## 1
Amino acid sequence: MVSKIAIVLVLQGFSVSDINSSLYTHLICVFAQLNSSSYEISVSPADEQYFSSFTSILKQKNPSISTLLSIGGGTANYTVFSSMVTNASTRKSFIQSSIRIARLYGSQGHDFSWVSSNTSSDMSNMGRLFEEWREAAKSEATSANSRTQELILIAAVHDVASQKLVLGLPFYGYAWNLRSPKKNAIGAATTAPSITQGGDMSYKDIKAYVQHYGASVLYIATYVVNYFSFGSTWIGKVNYQSKDSYWSNGNVDSLELFHGIAPDLQAFCFDDMIWS
């Protein structure tokens, strides 16, 4: 059975109760950060209310769901991460805090999101962290006074067997202003992002534009994308139906949606992988 995972961004005005958790096997709450002095996991006061209730609220609709807390992300200070993995004492501080905060919030594990670790020393030290982290998680779960399951630990790594891969699906697309509305094929010249400041659009908003403008959605197999245009606006997004043929053949163990927020998680179902 393929695991169905979604990443949930914590935003102001966000309501965890809006998520239909019955659609998923795992939900990941993002992002906790790393304290630059203690190297322990920290959650900002603004996010505390969301993180602390994330698991309990989701389990009301789906008692079997597993929740994870993501650490790092695109805005993290990766110099601190590099310093943390360098020596055993700071790795231990991080590991102990990760177990403590997971149990505090009732989550089933962590997602380690250090996407810019690309030096040989960072990769080597991160490998040591993973080994020590796994051993600590096993020890904590099997201790004499423990009745808890071993924490789930996931991360972005290289050279992994396909059966252990998580296929990431970007849960958004991009809109652009065409230089010439008549030249709207893949690779057409554009002048700037459209609709939003950076051009990024949620799955829900893209579907709304398709329906509102009655747009004809085209598919390009070479790039595995759907796109459509109206006037001088061009919008493109990954084609999930094609991706579905990849995971349905048993090539990956899990699916992970990037940048899902509550309204989109309600609108998206894994049985509806392509625009209509």
## 2
Amino acid sequence: EILLVIKPSEDDVTARTQIIDELKAIVGCMRSQNLRGASVELFGSFVSNLYTKWGDLDISIQLPEDHVYPSTALREIKGALQRRGIFRIVDFIPEARVPILAVASNRNDIYCDISINNWKGLINSKFLSWITQIDGRFRDMVLLIKEWAKLRDINSPKEGTLNSYSLSLLVIFHFQTCQPAIIPPLKEIYPGNIVKDSRGGRLTATEERNIHETCNVNIESFKRKLTNVNKSSLSELFVSFFQKFSAIKTMASDRVICTYSGQWEQKRNYFRRSTPILIEDPIDRPENAARAVQYMSHLAKISEACEGTYQKLLSASCDRTSLISSLVNREISSKILI
């Protein structure tokens, strides 16, 4: 029922496509030397097909010259958008690790995060889109977990919790550690380190095509050789996700969630002292996809959310209304509970 409400419609896709076309037109008309030859590239959940009907757009302005400061380029784009009046400025964070210009469409209120030369974002989005080919339950699970995480206020890196990419990695890890596994260790899909092997993710078209072909071949090989198929329903996988990660605070103290190997790995001493949780980025090892979680209190909040939801799902006294309201926000639940 929840998926029927949150999955995007054709109109949702069309609205986002229009926004992309508008941004391309605006950037293409800019006469700034800093933005000459710039291209507008999509990444994030829209590319990986892991977005809901309310999903934001992530956009990278790819510049041919590296000497331009991202904050300078974003400031010029901000001015151009303000002059055109099609978008309103929501936020501008030039001093961030990855400078961001957040805007929203005045026509349909869809939000967009614009960054500069986000090579890593481009490739990890495509990598996730390739993973969705393995099993249809993966996409559905990610959509459900993201909506649940928003309700529980643990899907906000600005506030020290998990970003959507790390939530997707948790779902991958869950599917890898089920019995039998649904997704293989990611080293069996791509054995290298994409970002470090390609100058920070700066892939040429040929390099990207070769990586895609390698992943496709290995994914098809995994599916072809799969004899012991996991037949768990989406509901069963949903419940076992929370059961597994109820203990994440304890497990993460000395272990790494490693989707590359498909298992918990021991933390190095340095990370034990400095990192409450380490969800290793499979395309940029050993970088931490959950680096926004910097305090134990934030990890405790994530763990408690998982534990509370697991107990709710097991409770015999929990009625349908109470259960749905504990998984999604009021806007979604009101469309279901009618």
## 3
Amino acid sequence: MGFANAYSNSNCQILIFWDEAVDCRVVEESEQKVTCSFNWMGTNILITFVYVKCIADFRKDLWENVKNISDRYSLSQYIAGDFDCIVDPVEKQGGSPHRMSKSLSFLQCIMDCDLIDPGYSGSTFTWCNGWQVDKRVWKRLDRILVNMSEPVERAWNVEVQGSPMWRFHLKLKNTCKKLSEWSRSSIGNIFEKVIKMEEKVRELEEKIINDNTDMNRGELNHANSLLIRAYKKEESFWKQKSGVKWFVQGEVNSRFFHSIIKGRKKRLSLKKIRGNDGNWIEGEEEIAKESVFYFQK
């Protein structure tokens, strides 16, 4: 392949190649990741290459390890590879709707490590099951994530003139501006998204009551997954806003967890049923009477 150096992790699932001009030092490795420190032309960065296992329980150690790496090193951090997990329902096409509960631990790791997805070029999807057209599934499993310290460092290092205090003021202003621009373009208004998705879910719930088809159920599942993700972002915002990084288990009182409980209650409750005459029956007492009448026939 023309590279001067190569490295493989213990189970040969991750292969790394680099040129002579690059100084690479392997910091640590496991069956799911290899973390390397790279020095090129005076620039030091930390890159973690991952090949995540398919079984969800095996990923927990990896996410925890990524958090530890983020805490231990002050270098600009990149994480790249096959995460075997999507972060948004739109990153899957075909098959059954994606349940965002499968992605929550990965999303939590991304937020805890202040990682961002800088985007990509080319195809949206990086994996396909290769099945026939009507059973084909596409997903975006491969990505690169960058620690927020990288864009912050670039914004802060912009040359400015003036007294030390004035330079500090300009650097701080420029950094805040860049972060605001990134937030608007990458995240948007998280509170508006929550309101819109709540309304969307309500509309689809009403729709499925009147027309309980597979397509409508799929749309509702998709909307619910987007709503859960919106709640998760809102929860993260309030954590950062309050200055509290960790919440003690059992003390979290966010809309995200309320939504989970509320969703369970909704699934276990009946708002209305259709009677034998085709008319809708509402109210707990009337529903109970109709149910007794139906089973006594």
## 4
Amino acid sequence: GRPNVGKSSLVNALIDKEKLIVSDIPGTTRDATSIEITYNDDKFLLIDTAGIRRRGKIRKKLEKFSVVRSLQATEQADVSVLLLNAEEGITKQDLHVADYILKNHGGLILALNKSDLLDKGEEVRDRILATVKRKFVFVPWAAAVFISAKNKKNVENILQIAAEIKAERNKRIETGKLNRFIIKTTLKHPPTTPSRILPKILYLTQVDVNPPHFIFFVNNEESFHFSYLRYLENQIRKEFGFWGTAIRMEMRGREDRKPRRKKKS
């Protein structure tokens, strides 16, 4: 998250110790700090990162190095917690960080940090959450939670949610189920294209986990519009879950006909 949004306070609340320097001065944490904890028999490696500011506001080489290390930490993490200042609202930089996590196919928790929100009624929290979801429309699968890092309220929920997201990231779907699903899905809403080649999905398989990685073998990948890929992702999530994590989707073209054999000379 941004500088001085409460990242170190959150980590301190999670470990219940003042191992990290907590200050009102933006930029107190200059490097990624790793701490291992156990919660409900699950082991977690918490990484507290330096604040990430817009490029135009990064002046010193040390700060630039710290930002690079922070972004690298999101690449290595199974789940990133994007801490948001619920009082100041969502900034463009918050959206940029979420987009970076999306592009690296990470898990994502949006943590709205403000103490008095937890004491407000459910209607108020629902209204704020709806606003956040509209801002982060490009990651509709992201988890969201209200916390108070300073007062150590609701922070344990982050660990519980992170464990659930990690389980989703490790989920593997059998190829048979995927292909029965893709037949049903394409019959319901067949792909269309302005090109001459009619797009056709030959079969679907999941090749990896953490993050979940799906490959669609098709007759011609260029025939598929990006909106249809979004439709397929939405249907995969509706059928199989993968809550809280990005998934990787790849299309590979394959000719319908086998290549002709060369004549012997």
